[in-house]
Each structure stands twice: as C-alpha cells, then as structure tokens.
Write a structure and sequence with these properties.
The protein is α+β, with helices and mostly antiparallel strands and about 140 residues long. It is built from 3 helices and 5 strands, in the order H-E-E-E-H-E-E-H. It has helices at about 5-10, 55-80, 125-135, and strands at about 20-25, 25-30, 40-45, 80-85, 100-105. The protein has a 5-stranded antiparallel sheet. The longest helix is centred in the middle third of the chain and has 22 residues, at about 55-80.
C-alpha cells in the first residue's frame, strides 16, 4: 500500500522522476540524490513500510537477493573494490526518511572518506555481556 504523503513512495512509484537503475513489480532502485560515493543507490519498496520491523516478510525475502544483484552489477560495471549494504531503522540509527530503504554504496580504493558506515568499537565487561545475552536470548 502506498502512502500519498511519503516522498519515497512517490519516487518508487514514478510520481517523481528519478535516476532509476532497476525496477520490478516490488522495488525501484534509484541513485541517491545525496550520494556517499559514485553510484550510491537506494532500493525502495513500492509499498510503504516505515522500517524493517514493519515490513512484510515476503518483501524482505526479495530485498537481500536484490541488494546482491545490484552490488554485483556495481562491482562489474563501476569497478568498485567493495560495497556497503546499509539499512537504518529509526532516527537513533540514522533513518531520516521513514520508508524502508536499503543503501547500496560502492566503495573504491581511493574513497576520500573511509568513515562511511564506520563505528567506534566498545568494550563491555563479562557481566554486561552476560546481561545482554539474557535479555536478547529468544
């Protein structure tokens, strides 16, 4: 189902022109308007889901194989040395548009910004780790 107020719904469904690189019945893949690197693309479901948690499992089953297909194409056609696949959920995680989307970011040996998708490593005590295991075990 499409959300008439959602900019990504409009992009995914052709209401707004895009630099599209792939399209099927469920997804549209476009170049990011504010790219991290040359070829940075967004995989947009045509139906509206605010994030991964709210997304339909059938759509999600198709999303990662599509990300693989796009990444492989980037490596072959752009000659990138690697690819980041990034999916943010919630503002605390960096999500700025509340429509499920997957970033496929080509990475080049000479990328000027090596911090894209990076994080600082943290250390936790054995007790803290045990507590997290207890809370997250399903």
């Amino acid at each position: 189902m499409k959300d008439e107020k959602c900019i990504f719904c409009k992009l995914a469904n052709g209401d707004i022109p895009t630099n599209s690189i792939y399209e099927d019945n469920d997804f549209k893949v476009i170049l990011d308007a504010d790219p991290a690197t040359k070829g940075h693309a967004l995989i947009l479901p045509k139906n509206h889901f605010a994030n991964l948690i709210e997304a339909d499992d059938e759509v999600l089953k198709k999303a990662l194989p599509l990300a693989k297909k796009i990444a492989k194409n980037m490596m072959e056609k752009l000659g990138c040395a690697g690819v980041n696949i990034v999916q943010n959920n919630g503002e605390a995680a960096g999500q700025t548009v509340h429509h499920l989307h997957i970033h496929v970011i080509p990475r080049y040996e000479d990328d000027p910004d090596k911090t894209i998708c990076g994080w600082s490593h943290q250390k936790f005590t054995d007790e803290e780790t045990t507590e997290v295991v207890k809370k997250l075990s399903m």
